[in-house]
């Protein structure tokens, strides 16, 4: 009897190991998430609107003498050489704005000046209505979120209020409003906006400073 019990225990243990190994082999590979920087990306986004080169001013010249029987010929201004805009990462459909492992702000960089619809979304009539946030921003200056007011899409930390841009609300449904850390960067293309980078998720959204807490 004792031998039969021992054989039964060994058989069950062996079956458990085999089933466990089979289940592990059938598990899908881990889905990669956007890489993140615990202290914030090393830099903010590169301006997407390149500064146009200065217009070439033709050198002053005397009025050409009139030719008898013909019109006055004025030489055209010299051609202006424009450097091509280097390609930058773009956002695939359905992917949240994030900073990749190279430090590129995917979803912001690469939006050139001809992308009028994108730039119009972020134009505000009166930038900085409550002034600038007075705390330090950029890499190494992380702030712990302390609360979230859904109706106003407003969050706060360190006695300061911020509003999440309405267009970016779908990107904050997984943020921890009492536990996540964010790092702020100023949007170089659209005055009035900051970019709040979530150090846990590696994603970012547009936010507006809403003034100090009373």
Summarize the structure in words:
There is one protein chain. The chain has 214 residues and is α+β, with helices and mostly antiparallel strands. The chain has a domain at 33-45 and 87-214. It has helices at residues 2-26, 116-121; strands spanning 98-99, 105-106, 142-144, 147-149, 154-157, 160-164, 181-186, 194-198, 204-212. The strands form two sheets. It has a seven-stranded antiparallel β-sheet with strand order 3-7-8-9-6-5-4, with no helix packed on it. A two-stranded antiparallel sheet has the order 1-2. A hairpin with a 7-residue loop joins strand 7 (181-186) and strand 8.
Q: Distance between the terminal alpha carbons, to the nearest Å?
A: 79 Å
* DSSP helical segment count: 2
Q: How many extended strands?
A: 9
What is the chain-wise order of helices and strands? Answer: HEEHEEEEEEE
Report the helical percentage: 10-25%
Classification by helices and strands: alpha+beta
User: Which runs of at least 5 residues are low in confidence (pLDDT < 50)?
Assistant: 6-10, 12-32, 84-94
Structure summarized in a few sentences:
The chain is of the alpha+beta class. The protein has 2 helices and 9 strands; from the N terminus they run H-E-E-H-E-E-E-E-E-E-E. A 7-stranded antiparallel sheet has the order 3-7-8-9-6-5-4, with no helix packed on it. A two-stranded antiparallel sheet has the order 1-2.
